[in-house]
Design brief:
Layout: E1 8-12, H1 17-27, E2 32-37, H2 40-53, E3 57-62, H3 68-82, E4 87-90, H4 105-133, E5 136-140, H5 154-175, E6 180-186, H6 192-195, H7 201-212, H8 224-235, E7 246-249
Parallel strand pairs: 1-2, 1-4, 2-3, 4-5, 5-6, 6-7
């Protein structure tokens, strides 16, 4: 996509999973990248990979996105380095098991602070710069925003429903400024996000096989590359009249009763 050459793309959650893969894909198109994560070691690995595949320039920022001062620092350093911003990708997120009987204030705050509050206020801070470039925003939501997937993921599902509503309401508010905002809602993927709350490799593999059976299209799980393709499309000029959309990448899973 020549259109991304020299564009400034800010990616949160860039140290692993979808964030790292998306950063690398944009890098192949010669973008200028700002990569954000709290995992300094793995963020540096993503930086190296992006430089090796063709990024015009890479800025890394180690930040805790649950802190407003860090959110301000992310935007400030991005503009200081690149003077502009074309694409904001709110990919950072967490997922954990917390059944209603045992969920705590701490669990609730942990989910909402990173899954909802961080993209909301990072977007708010980015508005003046995205307005100048008529830029775009892509949030990562989940199939869980619309569909019961597992009782123990109640707080996670609630947070992703909030992301969907944020995306739609923000689309109406930002349209007059020429800024587009959309969300990608994947089904289960085998990434670090899910592997962190599973106890063993055997449990991971069992979940992978179980979830694959629930996907109508091919009975196979969504791959990270499937989600990256959706992000690239929504961020591109090919989606110039698409805003406020939650794009499900799930092989029709959200349409089933399973």
């Amino acid at each position: 996509m020549v259109e991304f050459s020299s564009k400034v793309v800010l990616v949160t959650g860039a140290a692993s999973g979808v964030g790292a893969g998306t950063a690398k894909t944009f890098a192949k198109h010669g973008t200028r990248l700002c990569l954000v994560d709290r995992d300094e070691e793995n963020l540096a690995k993503t930086e190296t990979k992006c430089e090796n595949v063709g990024a015009e320039k890479v800025l890394t920022i180690v930040a805790d996105l649950t802190k407003y001062e860090d959110l301000k620092r992310v935007i400030q350093k991005t503009i200081e380095e690149f003077t502009e911003l074309d694409v904001l990708l709110n990919i950072a997120g967490i997922c954990f098991k917390a059944p209603m009987e045992i969920v705590s204030f701490k669990d609730f705050d942990a989910a909402y602070n990173i899954n909802v509050r961080a993209p909301l206020f990072l977007t708010q801070l980015a508005i003046p710069y995205l307005e100048k470039t008529k830029g775009s925003i892509v949030n990562i939501s989940s199939i869980a925003s619309k569909k019961y997937t597992e009782a123990s993921q109640m707080i996670y599902s609630m947070s992703k429903s909030s992301v969907d509503h944020f995306t739609k309401i923000a689309a109406l508010e930002l349209a007059k400024k020429g800024i587009r905002i959309n969300a990608v809602n994947p089904a289960f993927m085998k990434t670090n996000l899910f592997q962190r709350w599973l106890k063993s490799d055997e449990e991971v593999e069992e979940l992978v096989q179980e979830r694959a059976k629930l996907v109508p299209l091919g009975r196979k799980n969504v791959k990270v590359d499937d989600v990256i393709d959706a992000i690239m499309f929504l961020a591109s000029d090919r989606a110039k009249m698409i805003t406020g959309t939650c794009l499900f990448v799930d092989g029709a899973r959200h349409l089933t009763g399973m």
